[in-house]
Each structure stands twice: as structure tokens, then as C-alpha cells.
From TrEMBL, chains A, B, C, D:
Involved in the degradation of L-arabinose. Catalyzes the interconversion of L-ribulose 5-phosphate (LRu5P) and D-xylulose 5-phosphate (D-Xu5P) via a retroaldol/aldol mechanism (carbon-carbon bond cleavage analogous to a class II aldolase reaction). InterPro entries: Aldolase_class_II_sugar_metab, Aldolase_II/adducin_N, Aldolase_II/adducin_N_sf, AraD. This is L-ribulose-5-phosphate 4-epimerase. Coiled coil: none annotated. Its cofactor is Zn(2+). Pathway: Carbohydrate degradation; L-arabinose degradation via L-ribulose; D-xylulose 5-phosphate from L-arabinose (bacterial route): step 3/3. Keywords: Arabinose catabolism, Carbohydrate metabolism, Isomerase, Metal-binding, Zinc. One of its GO terms (biological process) is L-arabinose catabolic process. It catalyses: L-ribulose 5-phosphate = D-xylulose 5-phosphate. Its EC number is 5.1.3.4. It holds the Pfam family Aldolase_II. It comes from Clostridium cavendishii DSM 21758. GO terms for molecular function: aldehyde-lyase activity; L-ribulose-phosphate 4-epimerase activity; zinc ion binding.
Length: 229, 229, 229, 229
């Protein structure tokens, strides 16, 4: 069943190692068939190199496995919570991609510093609040979705297609699984650049001596250039 | 028409992923035929893997499409503004390459810290001023060229073949499209090293204990060396 | 003898360059046959590209070579010390992987900042104390194992499968050689992210102007979007 | 003439892109035949992809071209100065490798923070003093060698096989061209790790909440583990 969606979800999962967003099996992509109310998601703990489209697992919106020889990703309840709340989305991605995770670990959202972010995200990419002891100890993965939803009370998930889970890592979503991965790649780029922007802004040092600057430019470009000719 | 220039512009565009300057389609290269007053530029939104030389778009200096089945890059008006002002240049590149974009996002030019920069750029690589509300809301892309031109009132664009657009990213240029890409690669290298130079200059810590330093060097190089023999 | 373990140790060693954990020959993996009391370890100074399974060296728990045409890794006494103390482990890895080494050089353990670490390590990954002059000058490599063991007086090596040797680099272990390499990869990821988390937490700067943020998002996503269509 | 040395110098030059030490043609390796008093060096401005062993240039110790259809590297006078002063060396390398150049641009030597450095360099890797206006304007490349030699008045070039030229980049040397490249790779690794060690040492932040740490470890490793099984 859902062979096309399985193929789509499989291919989207395979983009995670291609774009260098995962180490080992630390990531998962899902897609939803809204009409049937069924989700297709990566199996748990299967290596990317060995994974096939037919290994994808089908679950319903209560988390029951409808088809599949493997267990669904441990993060399935988080995906489900997002699909239930964000009606327009068709795909969800979770990774521990480095720079987005660094912001998650710092407990900070990513402010908009440049147009690369503004091309995809309308304003700050939020970081979730701390989960309570109760939320962590019972239904942890479903509650991970709950704190994400909490962060979007006043945000449009179509305008901000991603979030940082505090002390954990990013989730992104999109109109389909491929689009959700696209946003995961963008988030990682943005996070890397935001990190370095924040640090840089505090520092300034003295430039090189003028005479050395002149020498180097002129030996390649001046009227008597002799370098690399 | 302009088949040679199309090939040249196509090949220069394909260097952007090769040198790791772009994610997805976040970059574009153009070239100009000064005699005919025509510009050849990358089509908008076409993936690098699928792009062919014949997909390049020909536009005139008013931005009218003269030939091409695709729309020209959204940044075409910026390229046009630069070709109009800087008479010696034959190619223009725009990317969101990471380290140059980080400086753009910090709103800072790149001071000359070393000979790598001085070999190509004569002094600081400027960062443009903030655009006004009006400049952003009307003819945004053309005005992006306008603030670049503003930054070069007292600079020679042949001596400083690139600029950082504030909160956006770098533009570079050169005598032809390939040369403009060459300068984009150099700018990215320079930016990475300048960032790290600025940060480093503030820090210093204690070295390792002498006895450990001596042990390691001597077990490989001393008269009684026994390591890796 | 021990042909299976040799193959296993050889393959685990070859994962070090695959996961970008070593430069030249700066790393080694060993495995133990607990029943026979014999260790199989990488030969000293042999390049990864030329190494074969049959080049692995067999040593006993006193460090005597039992089989092998090469000398065993200079770090063999450290591996032995760990096997003697940590009864449950079946494989040991040593590298100078960049980010873990950076923490070693800073003399600091890696605190748990996120779930990536908590998935594998229960709490802080410790950094060893300074070695004494005597420990360095006599039986240096065996004493390197000694200071590791010292760090685990109150830690469970099954729960914290790795350590940072001060001013040196990381050792990790696992139930077999492959598992020990797996933990070495995880440690390097964790170290990279912890470094950047620690620095980031101190910094915050101003975001981009709202009007520019709006323009970029709306030209791609607003009702009058015209970018990359 | 000197066909073997040409081959050796050519192969050593080709290691520079392999080890990611150069952008474009920003690096060069030479070797010396001490008996004949002749140096073989990379030609100026030739791309690595097109270079052949027979393109290497032979010069004498006064810098006269003895054989070769190309001009020798612009940095030849620096190499010559080093061969004249350091009698034991057989190969010299110059690059603008990123991390070593960052230290050069900061005007700082690399202190020994760990055993990776101590395995190859005995103590701090020095950074040269500022060159005078006269040294820069006349015989700049030869004087670049002069300030290097100045830095080694009290250092053994066999024990410290490299240097950082202020505001420029690194030179390394060795018993032959291949060994000099080996040291260039090591220097770059050391520089990257020293940079990050220096920055890290200043920072420390709070770890993640204990309850989250426990949850993640126990869902994979506790008696009721359910993650990735």
C-alpha cells in the first residue's frame, strides 16, 4: 500500500546523508497521505546504505503500525503530533545536523541576520522551552511534539517551517517529504552562518601593514607585475 | 545567438557547485558582450545538475529578454546596474557563499590581514550601507546594484573586484565570467581566514607542560626514538 | 591464529580514515579475545592504504608479541591497561580526531549539552589529570592507561565509553572493535557541537532590518511572489 | 637533467591539492640536489591539473634558470635563502593553507598545546617579525627568507621544521620534498586544533538538565530500552 508515498519518503530519507545532515542513523523523514490518514516513516535503526523503499513503515495517526516488517522510527509520535496540529504540512524531518543542533543545545532561536534566512523563514526560528520532568518521563516523544506546538501558538508553521528542540536538535516540515528535507538543508546553512555572524560581530583587529598590502597587489597587478605571469 | 558567450557563462555557473560556493540554486553568473550591449545570464530556479548551455538567457541592458525559454535570474537587474557603471568588467557573480555571507550579515567589510587578500584585492573589501525602505520596496534588485555602486565612489572596481551586500551576500566581477568566479572563490577563502584571524587575535592560553612536550618529541626524534619506527 | 579477530580489527582500523578521524597513521584500533587472553592490534607506522588484515599484530596481556611481522602500535601498553581494568570491553580505539583533541588540549571534559551525547554517554566525558614527571618519563604509554583508569574510579566505563587524555587526544572503547570505532565517531560529533555550543552561549547580536526580512520572504512566498518561479 | 628529483618534486607538489592545502596555484614545493648545488621547483602559475614532472624548473643557488621552459615559482628566492642557511634540509614547501595562514595573519606563533604538535615540532612554531619597508620594496622574496632565518637564530630547523611568515603564510621543510609536505600537513592540523584550543579555554556553560540526560541514555541503554532496537 501507498507505494508512491513510500518511494517518496525513502528518497527523501536518502537525501539526508547526501546533504551531510546525518551521522549513522540519526535522522528520519516521514510523509502523510491526508485522505487515508496514514503516515509513512523511516524504520528504526536501519542503516541508510541498506535501506529500501519497501522498508518504510506505515502507521496511523494513533501510532499503530498498519504495514511494515520493521518498527517505525522512535520519533514517530513527534511526527504524528505535528501532522495533527499543522494541517497544511505533508512531510516532516528530524536530524541532529550539526549547526542547528548547536543552537538547540544553546537553547536559542536563530534570529534573522540575512536574506538567506528571509528567503525561507519569516523571522526567528524558535527554540522550544524546557520540557517538564513529567513531559520527559511519560510519552517523551509525543510531548516533544507538544512543546513544538507550544512554540507555534503565535507563529504560522507555513511561514516558519522548522524549529529547534531545546538540548536536542531540529525538526523541519514542508508541503511534502522532499520539501521538508529542502528546509532542513536551508536551516543547517542558516544556522552555520548565524553562529559565525554572532561571534564575528564582537571582534575587530588591525589590518596588515600598508606597504606589504601594496607590494603584494602590485607584484601581480601593477605596471611591473612579475608574479604568476 | 551568442553561443560562445552562453557556453562561457554556462561553464562559469557550473564552477559554483564545483568550488562549493552554492547550495541548491543560490548563485548566478553572467557575462556581457559589450559590442552588442547584451548580457547572458543563468535562468531562474533551474538546478545545476539539469542546466545546459542553451538554457542561458539573453537580456539587453534594460532587462528585456532577447532570447531564452526561461526567465532570467531574479538578480538580473543587479548585474545590469554593475555592467552599466563598471565599464571594464565582463562577468558578474552572485552567491551566498558561507564566509562572505557571514561578513555581509555582520555588516562589515573585510580588512586586509594578509597577502592572500593583497594578491587580489587592494585594501578592504567593502560592505554596502543599509538600503532605505524605499530602495527595498521599489526596484529592490536594481537598487541592490545602486548601493554597490555607492560603495565604489572612491574605489576602483578593477582593484577591488567584489563587494559584500549588507545582510545579504557577496557579488564579485572580473574581466570575463570565469575570472569573476575566480574572484568569488578567492573572496570566500579570504573571508574564512579573516573571520578566524579576527577571533584569534583576542585569545591566548597556556601551553602544554614541558616534560610532556619533550617526551613526545624525543620518543619519535631523540637518540632513543621508539615511536612509529 | 585469530584470523577472524584480525579481520575484525583490520576492518575497524579502516573505518578511521573513512570517518575522517585520522591524518596519516595517527590512530589505532585493537580487539581482545578474552578466552585466550590475546589482543590483536594495528601495526606501528603502517599506512592505511597499504595495510592488510594479516598485518595485524597479536600480543599477550604483558605486551609480548605472539605473532606478527611488524611491531605493534606504540600505544599498545595503553590498550592493555584498559583491557585489564575494564572487563566488559572488547575493543579500544585511539585517535587524534580534531574536536576531541581540542578538548583534550584545553584540559576539559565534555559536559552533556544535548541528547546526542545523552544517547551514548551518561554524563560528562572526563578529561584525565596531568601525568606526573615520573609517569611521563617511565612507562609513559602504560601510565597513559593508568591516568585513564584513575578517571573512572567513580564512573562506569560501560556508561561512559570514552575519555580525553589531557594534552593528547581521545580513547574510546566498546563491546568489540567496530563498536569502539562507532563511539569514536560519536565522540567527535559531540565534541564539535559542544565546542560551538559553549562559544555561542555567550553571544547575541541584532537581527536584520524588518523591512528587508519582509521583502525577501514575500518575493518568494507572498501573493505577488516573483523569485525563482 | 635531474629527472628523479623532478619526479619527486612533481609528486610532492601534487600532494598539496590532495591534502587540501592549496586553492588554485597558491603553493609550491622544491627539492635540492646538494651535490650539484641545483634546486628543482614548481613552475610559476601552472595549474595542478595540467602540470607534468617535466615542467619542473631547475635553478642554481643564485636563482639562475638552468633548465625549464617555464619561469620558476615567484617564491624561488625564499626557497634558495632557506637552502643556503639550513644545510640539512632537502625540500621546502610554501602554501596559504587556511589555519596556518590564520596564525600568520594574527602575527602569532603556535604554542605547543598537545602531543600532536610535540610529535613533530619541539616547542612553539614561530611567527616572523614584520619586514621593514626596505625589505619589502627591494628583493622582497629573498628577504622573506631572511626574516625566516632571523627567527631561527636560537632554534634548530631540524627540530622545528616550519615557520609562519607574518601576514603571509607558512613555510615548512624536511629531509626531502615529500617530508616537507608531510610537515605542511601536520602544521595545518596543529594550527586548526591550536586555534580552537585557544578559543575554547575561555568558555564554559551550563550542561543540559539531568532528567533529559537520563531519559535519552536510558531509552537506548537502560533495562527498558526501546530506542533503535
Amino acid at each position: 500500500m501507498l507505494e508512491n508515498l513510500k518511494k517518496e519518503v525513502y528518497e527523501a530519507n536518502m537525501l539526508l546523508p547526501k546533504y551531510n545532515l546525518v551521522t549513522f542513523t540519526w535522522g528520519n523523514v516521514s510523509g502523510i497521505d491526508r485522505e487515508k490518514g496514514l503516515i509513512v516513516i523511516k524504520p528504526s535503526g536501519v542503516e541508510y546504505e541498506k535501506m529500501k523503499a519497501e522498508d518504510m513503515v506505515v502507521v496511523d495517526l494513533e501510532g499503530n503500525v498498519v504495514e511494515g516488517k520493521y518498527k517505525p522510527s522512535s520519533d514517530t509520535p513527534t511526527h504524528i503530533r505535528l501532522y495533527k496540529e499543522f494541517n497544511e504540512i505533508g512531510g516532516v524531518v528530524h536530524t541532529h545536523s550539526r549547526w542547528a543542533t548547536i543552537f538547540s543545545q544553546s537553547g536559542r532561536g536563530i534570529k534573522p541576520y540575512g536574506t538567506t534566512q528571509a528567503d525561507y523563514f519569516y523571522g526567528e526560528i524558535p527554540c522550544t522551552r524546557d520540557m517538564t520532568k513529567e513531559e520527559i518521563e511519560t510519552n517523551y516523544e509525543y510531548n516533544t511534539g507538544e512543546v513544538i506546538v507550544d512554540s507555534f501558538k503565535e507563529l504560522n508553521p507555513g511561514y516558519v517551517p522548522g524549529v529547534l528542540v531545546k538540548n536536542h536538535g531540529p525538526f523541519t516540515w514542508g508541503k511534502d517529504p522532499h520539501d521538508a528535507v529542502h528546509n532542513a538543508v536551508v536551516l543547517e546553512e542558516i544556522a552555520m552562518m548565524a553562529w559565525n555572524t554572532e561571534i564575528l560581530t564582537r571582534y575587530e583587529v588591525n589590518p596588515m601593514p600598508d606597504v606589504l598590502k601594496n607590494k603584494h597587489f602590485m607584484r601581480k597587478h601593477g605596471p611591473n607585475a612579475y608574479y604568476g605571469q
